[in-house]
Design brief:
24% helix, elongated
């Protein structure tokens, strides 16, 4: 699902497609004519694929070094609701402003990298032929990764494509509830909560549909995402 007010800064999904995606032309997703396939069996085992992923992450680092300071745009005073995407990680429900959301996509395989740059970096995922960095919100938020969360045949894990400061990133989530308009008076009244490790990423905690929902501070969260990629 696209968001018309996604941030237009740094790398875009189109920019990531500028990397030579030989795996889509002559590799495992193409006509399989690459002579290296005999040796590597799958493109993810090839040094060319790993080098492309490394160049992608290098671009994030370069964009961060060259990025100019931007003044946040203040919210209009006449806005009475704010759109939040509700999703679940383990047993915890969270909400994030849709303005930093590019798309909700089906879960894709995550390919780990030989030299991870941070504990939160899971690797890269192939999003419509482009390599996109994949991060763990569980790690960034300091959540308990041992909880099992909800279960059921209708629960479908998803990937959120988020417009971070220097390009799109992918974060896997256990479940997506949808986008909901929340009265700003309720958001203002929400009391700050959370563990010490994650309090700086939390704007407040509110009750929604019988759940205790953590409302994420997208500015702080996206800043942490950028640090994880550089």
């Amino acid at each position: 699902m696209s968001s018309s007010d996604a941030m237009d800064t740094g790398l875009t999904l189109t920019d990531t497609q500028a990397i030579d995606d030989c795996w889509n032309r002559i590799g495992i997703h193409g006509d399989k004519s690459c002579p290296l396939l005999v040796e590597h069996i799958h493109c993810r085992n090839c040094s060319v694929y790993s080098a492309a992923a490394t160049r992608l992450l290098d671009r994030y680092a370069l964009q961060q070094e060259d990025r100019h300071d931007m003044t946040p745009v203040e919210a209009q005073t006449d806005v009475v609701t704010r759109s939040l995407l509700m999703f679940r990680l383990g047993e915890e429900w969270l909400g994030i402003a849709t303005r930093c959301l590019v798309e909700v996509a089906p879960l894709q395989p995550i390919h780990s990298l030989p030299h991870q740059r941070s504990r939160a970096l899971l690797g890269v995922a192939n999003v419509r032929g482009a390599l996109v960095a994949c991060l763990s919100l569980v790690e960034l938020l300091g959540l308990d990764s041992t909880v099992s969360g909800a279960s059921g045949a209708r629960i479908m894990p998803r990937m959120l494509i988020i417009a971070a400061q220097d390009g799109p990133v992918v974060v896997p989530v256990d479940e997506v509830d949808g986008i909901h308009a929340i009265d700003e008076r309720d958001l203002k009244a929400a009391s700050a909560s959370g563990t010490q490790a994650s309090a700086r990423y939390t704007q407040g905690v509110l009750q929604f549909k019988g759940r205790s929902l953590r409302w994420l501070d997208e500015v702080q969260l996206l800043s942490a995402v950028t640090r994880s990629l550089t």
